[in-house]
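Deviations from the work plan: none for this task. Representative record:
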Amino acid sequence: MFMEKPFTRCVQAVSALAIAFASLGAAPQDGEVTTPAAEAPAATPLLRRLTEAQYRASIADIFGEDIKVAGRFEPDLRVQGLLAAGASAVSVTPGGFEQYETMARSIADQVVDPAHRDRLIGCGPTSADPSGRACATAFFQRIGLRLYRRPLGPSEIALALANAEKARTLLGGDFYKGVGAALAGMLSGIEFIFQIENDVADPTKPGARTLDAWSRASRLSYLLWNSTPDPELLTAARSGALMTDSGLAAQTDRLMRSPRFMNGARAFFDDYLRLEDLNNVTKDGLIYPGFRAGATADAREQTLRMLSDLLITKSGDFRDIFTSREIPMDGMLSPLYRLPVGRQDWTTVQFSDDAPRAGILTQIAFLAGHSHPGRSSPTLRGKAILEILLCEEVPAPPANVNFTVVQDVSNPQYLTTRQRVQAHLDDEECASCHKRMDPMGLALEKFDGAGQFRAQENGVPIDTTGAIDGVKFDGAIQLGQALRDNPKVKSCLVETAFRYAVGRQLASSDDAMLGRLNARFVQSGYRVPDLIRTIATSPDYYQVRRATAKATRVAQAGPRSEGHF
Amino acid sequence: MALNTTRRGFMLRGMLGGGAVALGLPFLDCFLDDNGEAIAATLGGGRLPVRFGTWFWGTGVIPDRWAPTKAGAGYDLPPQLAALADVQQHVSVLSGFSVPLDGQANSPHFSGNIAVRTGTPAEGWQKIIAPSLDVLIADAIGGGSVFRAIDVTPDGNPRTSYSFRDGNAMNAAIPTPLEMYQKLFGADFQDPNAADFKPDPRYMVRKSVLSGVTDERRKLMQRIGAADRVRVDQYFTSVREVEQKLAMQLEKPARAESCRIPEKPADVPASTDIVKRSAAHKVMADMLAMALACNQTKVFNLTYSTALSDLRRDGSATGVHQSTHEELTDRKLGYQPTVDVFVTQTMAAWTDFVRAMASVKEGDGTLLDNMLVFAHSDVSFGKNHDVNGLPMMLAGRAGGKVKSGVHIKNGGDPVTRVGLTLQQVMGVSADSWGTGATRTNRTLSEILV
């Protein structure tokens, strides 16, 4: 599904990956016949681990911004380009749980300390209730609802009370320490660390399953705010309103009107463009002295600000992200753009019509993020465009390739990167992928590995001509225009948004929904908020496929890709 | 010391053959004997535990300049192994083993590494079907020390790890010396040689709270699909592991004569420069030696550089990985000179590691004598991603169970022979390992005592 057919060998390689059977815990034995996973409908994963951003936002929303969350989170897993899809594949490793438990205790200690307990607990032992049991019960009910995003059952309340009581006894009779210990247990619980979805019979569709109201509240909230449901949304879950189309629409609209919708949108843009990967991007300080240590973080923020402003605040046309000449700028980044260092904090800059830059492809986040520490990489950039913006999977290169020619800068035939990369196309096996990938990357060659503009390489003017899907371009501006007008870029965004929203890999049963979303996206004039609203209010978004006897999972995430050039 | 072999045998079949999803109990239960003691610790014959670890480096070697020609003891040291000269008696070299891909594509920098680690090559993370061998060994011997296993890398990235329960459950690495110190010798550290010991009630509270957490799992398991059940089981296994750690902290730690608490390292940013990387690695190696001597862990994985090695020299536009593919072979020298320098420096870092372990006195010998360290890369010749003849080395004598200082010059047997041997030496009850063409039941008798 959504696998385009531009280059046969790549498609074959990807199909081979897709049918390579890898259900967990079911290793094929010798001689055993395995069914290709594509034919066996898999159960919808019902557990999604909170991402680091979601965990942090949830704690801030429940306990306040002043509660510190310190510690290193277990890394999220990127599956088919999205951390959101990895969230329904990962669990918690022993080392990871140790971190969660440490963070849980640190958060709980802060909640019950004298500076916070009045606001966050608001009661204590009294002469009528010397053990504080009534206070603790009320606290666990109230906080439990927020932490687990559903009411706690009697056994869960009883467990929290028992934990608190035991801890109080062991810790010298301090009521608050007891409550803190039990709270740490809840924060370490699978119900908090994961969104756990619960399905019920679909009242509108006999035989089908759909998410219950509490699970819908969590989905909506993490999609639209990237955080835990607020009390009003939980009320709508409790009343059953979220099980109706009108109730769902009303809450979706409320959440999207809130300024916090920006957090949800930014989280999507961040995942869509894989901006988290910038955390591990470093540049050589001797080769790129202008690229300072904080530049990657600011480059990520720049791209997020640009997208948020254009697509959410202004509700602009999605396609303009490839051509817009407006760009947020700060003092850290302006030298890399060869702009006078103005204010240190963010302002908006308008590139002139003859400037070499427009759109996200010419921003530092993209250019430096898809380069090597000491040089640019047309292949990495081209691959990023194919995978991220066109949803085409690029297989790993064949193992036994002679790369020597591309590095021979002393050979007078190969003075520029283009000439060296051209060598790919002389090799049939390489050409199948590189003829599609390289021209787009080469169009960006007037920007070095740090994203700075350059007109020449080794004294030779840089040739930035190429074509994508029959549309010719010369340079970054025209490449942006070509992508703006390319229909696959739009359908790829729709597919990515839906995968992000459901937090899993898609199945063929999702095709009808994708078709409707695509049609609606065109109709809306390519408005991202409209797309997100359509997903959030669609019954299909909440549909659950129950486990079948032969449940399997298709695995398509590749290894860390080989990056050359 | 009765070991419930039936349950344990079931477990192994379960994990490799599809039964893992049906397990009601976390993995760990099945690998401990009745006293919670690990198996190999007592099979070693002495009171000192035997530790296992891996040491990984990326992008291989230049085989002609790495592999010794002379087999057996007193093997020759080619230029890329020259640094080993004064520790050669501790290090065995394994050359010439193959990675049968069984019709799979050779996914560059991935297939070979995964075959070495799991016994079965895979083309992508999520297709990894078996635990890595360090996890199997940690399941067998990891109990009885504070951490079942420790994963570290000096490269600054927690994703730099090749240790996993399956492709979705990677054990993230501690990515800096400072974080490593905080984990091993920070707030929760209990000095085994401290004069007095008083159980801290806070550990009791934490343990009690976590035992409540595990009670809730049964209800959840009933209503979720098979893949989710594996994930839930992994979560509760992790909870149990922290519980067991807390239980240990409530008991007076056994004395550890060689344990010295290391200095807190400086907070130095991670670097891709090989000189800086080697410096950070040395700090980690020295700290790891003390973590082992202080019985903080018995199993570790240290990743010096990623499979697609990111190492470079500051100021150079090209890193070692790019050089392996792009550097011309010098006609006069007959090899890629830049790549050669990187491999030689990497082998110097490995030598630092061996020396760090061998310099700690323990019992009548050294810490290294009670260790078995498995060093390897992801490819043999980086230039063409060849996975046959993948470079591997062993250090230490595993408490007297293996010979050290020999060169096993193999003629193409599957690498799984190495992994199977390591598991058996460390007390994993496995009589064969691998799938399809990599499956083997033969160990390396040449090194077994």
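Chain B has 13 helices and ten strands.
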